[in-house]
Design brief:
Elements (H helix, E strand, L loop, with lengths): L2 H14 L9 H15 L4 H14 L6 H9 L13 H24 L9
Helix pairs in contact: 1-2, 1-3, 3-4
Length: 119
């Protein structure tokens, strides 16, 4: 998901929960988008959009970032795979998440590649 799609998500949420959001400045809105993107940007837009649809259908209150993460990651039913998930895509997402975590751990120990000197 990119930041433009994150803004679309936030706009939809504000439309779905109009009384939960007061008028905010552009700076605060951009900060909200940045924070939400930090935690949800790793997911594909269609996955976040489907999670949002499910949350809007069952929640009376403006959701939190953790509500989205729970909706996306917590297994549903006996298979642990949501009805809209393609099993291959589920495996690919899990492997991508593992790879990103391994990269972050490596960078934490060794520094980012651009910080390393050429030998």
């Amino acid at each position: 998901m990119d930041k433009k799609e994150m803004k679309q998500t936030m706009d939809t949420l504000m439309g779905a929960y109009p009384f939960s959001v007061t008028k905010i400045s552009d700076d605060v809105a951009m900060s909200m988008i940045e924070v939400w993107f930090k935690y949800l940007g790793q997911y594909e837009y269609d996955v976040v959009e489907k999670a949002m649809d499910n949350i809007i259908k069952k929640s009376n209150w403006f959701p939190s970032i953790s509500d989205f993460i729970k909706e996306i990651e917590e297994p549903k039913g006996r298979t642990g795979i949501r009805d809209y998930d393609d099993p291959i895509e589920v495996l690919e997402r899990e492997e991508m998440t593992k790879a990103v975590k391994r990269k972050q751990e490596w960078e934490k120990r060794n520094g980012k590649p651009e910080q390393l000197q050429e030998w």
